[in-house]
Write a structure and sequence with these properties.
The protein is about 30% helix and about 30% strand. By secondary structure, the protein is of the alpha+beta class. Strands 22-30-29-23 form a 4-stranded antiparallel beta sheet. Strands 31, 32, 34 and 35 form a 4-stranded antiparallel beta sheet that branches. A hairpin with a 2-residue loop joins strand 25 and strand 26. The protein starts with 6 loop residues before the first helix and ends with a strand.
């Protein structure tokens, strides 16, 4: 080679030949062509398999689906619906056991307002998955579906309310006394049903077929253990460490620890602490007998009736205990380390009728009286009992006296017994029978005293020992005797009852004279005959005719004699029936 040809060698050095890259070499290789063909075949086979599987599973429930543990995988929808309805309807009608903490109870889902929402359930199940990977996974996996539910809110609320009977309220911390000794009560948490969460749990899991755990919430006591210990140490133990003395006027009362402890109790305040309180009535019951000699009960002014004249018996002003003021500051006294005595607080109590009022009443003489007789036995018991009750009654000027209101209930507890009465026109018996004789006696005394007749009722048939058209009957709570003191003076009622005679006398200042004019008996009526079975309820009677009559009351001024009032009262008496007991 000569020096004249350098260009050829230079090009040879500048343009070397590079070997082909490994990847490109593979792609261009026969192996690469075979792999591509295999992949294409696999992809085509997978697509074909997907199409075939999709075609074969059309209308079926997706694989792996279980509804509330019921396997419906791969079933036609109609078959799955039948299986679900059979099983779930059975579960809805059978008792389901629920647990609330440590308590077990049974309920029937259907009775709790639970039923299957089938459209909603199928929405949850869904159709065949489009994703090929999901379809492959469904072959090996399981998908749990809870049935959708319809809830009857009213029935569900009733069921939850019933379950709340198993709630356990917290045991409140406190202090109690045992034979005068303070004992701590330790707080214990409670457990109550979490209603919203329980409603959700029942709605979602009632069909699972196993024991269902319902959520519960723990509730704490207001008073903590520390607060109990503090109350025990600082209040309860000092409160009963020694007796408490109540000093009264001329006498004292001692409250020992045991009865004192029986009247004490603790209650929580808003801050969670325990406060001491006392039972007012229990304290009074323990102290009152001891302090009774120091008390003066009020007594109304009265009248001494002798020699045909009435004089005033002075009233007595009471000096009684004001218990509320006496107990003021007692809780503080009980826990203080010092003196354990307390002064009894008294207050004056004026009588209902003072001496001054009685002296103004002008009760000086008898202004009207009346006597009836002819009673005995049980009737006499009742007449004497009511007479004692009314004796000493005072009627202020302008006031109305009511026999029923004044005596109150006239029953066995008040000392009355069973005796004869008139019931629907026939003789009968009742507790308090015979009091109508006292009413007639009182009515006539008020009649001749010039009192204003407000209300009275005659017997249904005539009783011979009473003045016709001038008598009265009463019945507890139904028929009353009322008259008004229409004078400017007070009226005092005096009664006296013996074995067969009762007298009522009204005392005041005499302002009128009263005359009674009896009317003739007219329009006679003959009795009917009544036959009743023999026994306690049948009282035989010979009967008597009925008639109509009247009474005229004339009132004149006591000083001038001038007539001021005239009134005629007409009364129709029914015939007394002839009663036969057979």
């Amino acid at each position: 080679m000569t020096s004249g040809s350098p260009g050829r060698h230079a090009r040879a050095r500048q343009d070397p030949v590079e070997p082909p890259a490994p990847g490109r070499q593979f792609l261009n290789s026969a192996a690469a062509r075979r792999a591509g063909i295999a992949a294409g075949v696999l992809l085509a086979a997978s697509g074909l398999a997907f199409v075939v599987d999709w075609s074969l599973s059309a209308g079926q429930v997706p694989r792996g689906v279980q509804v509330a543990g019921i396997d419906i995988s791969g079933l036609q929808r109609s078959q799955a619906q039948t299986r679900l309805e059979l099983e779930l309807n059975q579960r809805a009608a059978q008792p389901l056991t629920v647990e609330i903490g440590d308590v077990r109870a049974d309920l029937v889902p259907r009775d709790a307002g639970l039923s299957v929402d089938w459209d909603g359930t199928w929405d949850r199940i869904g159709g065949q998955p489009v994703n090929p990977f999901t379809r492959v996974w469904s072959v090996f996996g399981t998908r749990e579906v809870e049935p959708a539910v319809f809830v009857d809110d009213a029935a569900m609320t009733r069921q939850l309310d019933a379950l709340r009977t198993h709630d356990r309220q917290p045991v409140e911390g406190g202090v109690v006394f045992d034979q005068g000794r303070p004992v701590p009560v330790r707080p214990v948490p409670g457990r109550v049903l979490d209603v919203p969460a329980a409603r959700a749990a029942l709605s979602e899991h009632w069909a699972d077929g196993s024991v269902l755990d319902l959520p519960a919430a723990e509730t704490q006591a207001t008073v903590s253990a520390a607060a109990v210990d503090k109350a025990l140490r600082e209040i309860a133990q000092p409160a009963v460490r020694a007796p408490v003395t109540f000093t009264g006027k001329g006498g004292n009362a001692t409250l020992d620890p045991v009865p004192l402890a029986g009247a004490l109790s603790f209650h929580p305040n808003e801050q969670g602490a325990l406060e001491l309180s006392y039972n007012r009535e229990a304290l009074i019951a323990a102290l009152e007998p001891q302090l009774k000699p120091t008390v003066v009960e009020p007594k109304d002014a009265g009248f001494n009736l002798s020699g045909g004249r009435a004089t005033v018996v002075p009233a007595v002003v009471g000096d009684t205990i004001n218990w509320d003021k006496t107990f003021e500051g007692l809780p503080a006294l009980l826990v203080s380390p010092g003196d354990r005595s307390k002064a009894v607080v008294y207050e004056q109590v004026q009588p209902k009728l003072t001496t001054a009022d009685a002296e103004k009443f002008g009760v000086v003489q008898s202004i009207g009286s009346f006597t009836t007789s002819g009673f005995s036995g049980p009737s006499g018991v009742n007449i004497r009992t009511v007479a004692r009750k009314v004796d000493g009654a005072v009627i202020r000027p302008g006031d109305t006296f009511s026999l029923n209101d004044f005596t109150g209930t006239r029953g066995v507890e008040q000392g009355y017994v069973e005796s004869g009465i008139i019931d629907h026109g026939r003789p009968s018996t009742a507790v308090g029978g015979g009091i109508s004789q006292f009413a007639t006696t009182l009515y006539n005394a008020a009649y001749f005293a010039g009192m204003e007749d407000v209300d009275h009722t005659e017997h249904s048939y005539y009783i011979s020992r009473y003045p016709a058209a001038r008598e009265a009957t009463v019945f507890d709570g139904a028929i009353d005797l009322k008259f008004r003191n229409n004078t400017p003076y007070g009226v005092y009622i005096e009664t006296a009852a013996g074995d067969s005679e009762v007298t009522v006398r009204l005392w005041s200042t005499k302002t009128v004279e009263v005359e009674s004019i009896a009317g003739e008996r007219t329009k006679p009526t003959e009795p009917n005959t009544v036959t009743l079975p023999k026994g306690k309820n049948c009282i035989a009677s010979d009967g008597a005719p009925g008639f109509t009559t009247s009474d005229t009351r004339i009132i004149r001024d006591a000083k001038s004699g001038k007539e001021t009032y005239r009134h005629t009262r007409t009364v129709k008496y029914d015939p007394i029936p002839i009663v036969k007991c057979e």
